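In response to the reviewer comment on reproducibility (Comment 2.3), we provide here a single inverse folding case reported in full, input and output, so that an independent group could reproduce the run without further information from us. The structure tokens appear first.
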């Protein structure tokens, strides 16, 4: 039998097509450094592309906690949680995360991607409907697909559209899902309005707070805490540990009965090795610092404010974000790549974000700040941005949408 459709060859061709379109992503090796400076291709760059918002990834207390727990527990958890992989540091961390987010219990997952697949697949069945913001993280979309429910996506942050979509199907169960802070835009979801909508439409609500935890709310408890929403209004709260907390992994928090049930049914929890116990110990240290050290959030707010003012003065295409995610929307993938390359030449790492991560015509420089950056770092970035944009935009590099960004010639 000849199928004439070799799945491996087809995939390779798709990658080649993507490369021809200039949309292939490059794997680059950082040889040294973390937090503000990294060494790439032998050059030291000021990094504005990490998600280490609080600057904790390299914090000596986290490193010490990791080493100490590795001495006591070894490296690997050796099994899934429900077999014999659940260790003391995991329990301590789950408790700390539940307390911080104001929930009864929390359940750890190896990654945020796995957490979202697991929780959506556990909650949703074929007859149910899942209504999501169009800009939600890929793992939320994939989780709903895996669950086999009907998936509807409403225009970004449009609560009324979410309400209409929830009204379309009233037979099965319904779950309204949103990012708390949108990962590529930096804006915060209209959480209170969405929670009211979910309540009216008799739907449960889930928030993925990957970019809000540690950054927003009292003691950094996240966007849901900032909006004052409890476990009744947002019964399913998910967040990751690899962003502001500077480690890796994720958790889902909620009422004790829900979390106990999730531990039984979330397949990415049941059938996956527990995260390394030492990583849980390091994350526990991170939670303590994140809660205690308000100066990190205050300093981030000062950096964001300084950047927004400076960027507006330079007529840079900033987006309305009050979080450490400060994208510059350029539109065309070619232009973003050119500006990013020029910034790298000038000593700055600001990675170009292109389709399919963002919609066609919405390519951007995704600038992120950490509490380790200084106001001088932001000034240096602004100067480099102005020069890179002046030299690379409007000079005929293909623009696939709208009008190219105009910069004052100074
Ligand atoms: C990063 C991210 C995830 C995935 O988390 P990982 O731990 O990196 O797998 C999920 N949701 C959102 C909104 C994210 O930004």
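Designed residues, in position order:
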């Amino acid at each position: 039998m000849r199928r004439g459709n070799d799945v491996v060859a087809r995939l390779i061709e798709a990658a080649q097509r993507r490369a021809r379109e200039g949309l292939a992503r490059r794997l680059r090796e950082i040889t040294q450094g973390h937090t503000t400076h990294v060494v790439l291709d032998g050059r030291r760059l000021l990094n504005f592309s990490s998600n280490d918002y609080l600057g904790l990834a390299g914090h000596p207390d986290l490193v010490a906690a990791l080493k100490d727990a590795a001495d006591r527990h070894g490296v690997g958890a050796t099994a899934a949680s429900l077999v014999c992989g659940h260790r003391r540091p995991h329990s301590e961390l789950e408790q700390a995360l539940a307390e911080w987010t104001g929930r009864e219990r929390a359940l750890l997952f190896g990654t945020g991607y796995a957490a979202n697949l697991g929780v959506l697949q556990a909650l949703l069945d074929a007859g149910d409907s899942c209504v999501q913001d169009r800009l939600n993280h890929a793992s939320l979309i994939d989780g709903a697909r895996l669950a086999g429910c009907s998936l509807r996506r409403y225009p970004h942050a449009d609560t009324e559209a979410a309400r209409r979509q929830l009204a379309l199907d009233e037979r099965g169960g319904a779950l309204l899902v949103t990012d708390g802070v949108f990962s590529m835009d930096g804006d915060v979801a209209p959480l209170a309005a969405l929670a009211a909508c979910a309540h009216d439409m008799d739907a449960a609500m889930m928030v993925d707070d990957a970019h809000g935890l540690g950054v927003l709310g009292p003691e950094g408890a996240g966007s849901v805490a900032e909006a004052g929403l409890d476990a009744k209004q947002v019964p399913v709260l998910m967040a990751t540990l690899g962003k502001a907390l500077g480690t890796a992994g994720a958790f889902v928090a909620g009422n004790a009965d829900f979390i106990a049930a999730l531990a039984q049914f979330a397949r990415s929890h049941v059938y996956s090795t527990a995260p390394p116990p030492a990583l849980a110990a390091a994350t526990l240290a991170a939670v303590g610092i994140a809660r205690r050290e308000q100066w990190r959030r205050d300093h981030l707010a000062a950096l964001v404010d300084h950047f927004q003012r400076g960027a507006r003065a330079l007529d840079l295409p900033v987006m309305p974000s009050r979080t450490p995610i400060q994208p510059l929307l350029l539109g065309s993938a070619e232009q973003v790549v050119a500006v990013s390359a020029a910034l790298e030449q000038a000593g700055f790492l600001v990675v170009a974000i292109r389709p399919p991560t963002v919609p066609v015509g919405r390519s951007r420089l995704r600038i992120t700040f950490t509490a380790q950056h200084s106001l001088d770092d932001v000034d240096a970035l602004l100067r480099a941005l102005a020069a890179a944009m002046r030299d690379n935009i409007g000079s005929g590099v293909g623009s696939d949408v709208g009008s190219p960004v105009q910069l004052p010639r100074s």
